[in-house]
Amino acid sequence: MTSPPVEPATGDGDVERRRLEALDHIEGSPWADEEAARILDLVCRAVSADHVGLSVVSADHSELMATTSSCAGVRAPRTTAVAGRAVATAAMADVVVRDAAEVGDHPLLDGMTLPVRWCAVPVRAPGGEVIAALEALWEGDATLEAATAAALELAAGHAEHVLELRAEVNEYQRFVELAPDAVLVLDAAGDILLANPALCDLLGYGAPEQLIGRTFMDLLVPQDRMRVAAELGRLLFSPRRITRLELTLTGAAGHEVRCSVSSGNLRGPRRRLQLVVHDLSDRLRHEEERARLSEQLARAQRLDAVGQIASGLAHDLNNLLVVMTSNLSLAGESLTELASRSPGDEVTSLEQDLGEIRTAVERANDLTAKLLEFARQDDRSARPTTSDVAEVVEAVQALVDRTLPRPVQLDVQVPDALPPVAADPVQLERVLLNLIINSRDAIDGRGTITVCADRVAPSDNLVVDPADTSELAAGREFVRVDVVDDGAGMDEVTQARSLEPLWTSKGGEGGTGLGLATVASFVDEVDGSLSLDSEPGEGTRVTLHVPSVSDREKRLPGRRDVPVGGARVVLLEPGERTRRVITRMLEGSGYRVRAFGSAAEALRSLATDGADLLVAELSLPETSGERVLAVARETVPDLGVVVLTTVDGPGTLDGTPVLVKPFSHTRLLQAAERVLAKR
User: How confident is the model at residue 371, as a pLDDT?
Assistant: First the structure.
């Protein structure tokens, strides 16, 4: 700990205060016993003394730091100690002791025959303050010779140099202890001589003493030991002063910490290395996040380009469809006129053919509308429609039957008595087409594609999180649609990436990467689920669960099972514009919203006013989103939580729904309702 600044000396009180502060810098770690014995023994021989000692003088006492006798560490009153007299006068004290009481029966006199000549020479701190005295004792009262006095003065100067080094050591140790970075010092054998609290915090140790004395190589992961030992060895015996390494340390709990280490030689006759350790965890995490964001940006740019292309194609197709529709209308009128003049089977057949063409044109019209919606990124889930699964499957079968290769068979197993589902029929048709085409491409040679559907009644056995796209929630009504093939199947890597937009396993010219991504987008919009079951060489089963109309009606806004009027929401969103938009979304649906841009403000609001729901951004500038969630749940134990993020990831985080930006109004409200319903 550093001393406070000292005011200019204006009297004896200021001088004494400065002296005691200088002494405080010197004290703190004992003078090495071997070093003390060697130096004092040399002084004792040089002046032919019986005993020599070095005493520091505090405000009240004189304490022997080291001595050639056996009484090091003994304290004596300052007023009677000869060292105290030398410090008080800042000059040599030369005393003949004829009565032990004169020096308070000082232990240095033990075994000596009085009278004794006792000489003390002042020893100064680096700043010039007198803080100690070098003492020498001779039996008898012979006069102190000038040469002996000069030798003691010279020895006192050497003691001052030793104390100065000791002060520097203490300052260095204090600096290391207070350093925010993890610091350790190694000897030539690689053993840890010094470690600071920051290193203990980094590795999970309770105190530096748990590390001191250990071999640094024991803290490294095995694969780094040989490389690091070679680098540090070269540094230790080379003129180069510093080197930088990246390595992995093992913590107290066995966890690994990736670090950057700056290592350098310490000055001095003994070879020492100082290592400053920087935790790379945050940097690596930021680099990974940057890479993810870069990939997202590239994907968004590709999707934007696809959207622009889709918009142009849709407009061109619309122009063609207008021509086709007009000509179909004219052909219908001509056919009606022809039928009035010469009715017959041929005319009836032509009317049927024109009807099929008209139906196909209407479907093409719907598809161009969907292309325009894709290009504009419209929120289609806000306009639910209904579909008859059997009719959609029948229409898809009529479209693909003639396009499948002869060795590939399409087997349809769909009962007629299925409830209508809450999904756009054109979207459902497009999804089934994508799945069948994927299955066709996976079959090499002969094979079978099976499309089957069935009703899934509410069941207490289906107890899962609705945000998990691989399962269903208890108590909901669905229609299950399976598309199964006996093709090549998918490995784990392919399955993991199969739902990513613009990623394809068919090569650069073999696919667009939009097939399964479109399916995933569809089930997300209708609040259904999607699961993949595939093994290499064993084929693939894709299962869709689409909510029935009755289930959708129970969940529509305005008929909520969870009343939101009065529900209190704390919104934590650093972005000001995004915060305003989300606030309007929630307030427009009856929630009472308190919006904040910083985690500290949001947590204070939770602590003082409480809340029913926390909607929080995971990536925060000043702290960790996971930590904020933990503190919030401790503050309000029954708090509902919805997490917002800009990074693709799992649908849930420890059971908490995760919404990836941008998200629709409907998806936000559905997530809030699901969370509140569980409270």
Answer: 62
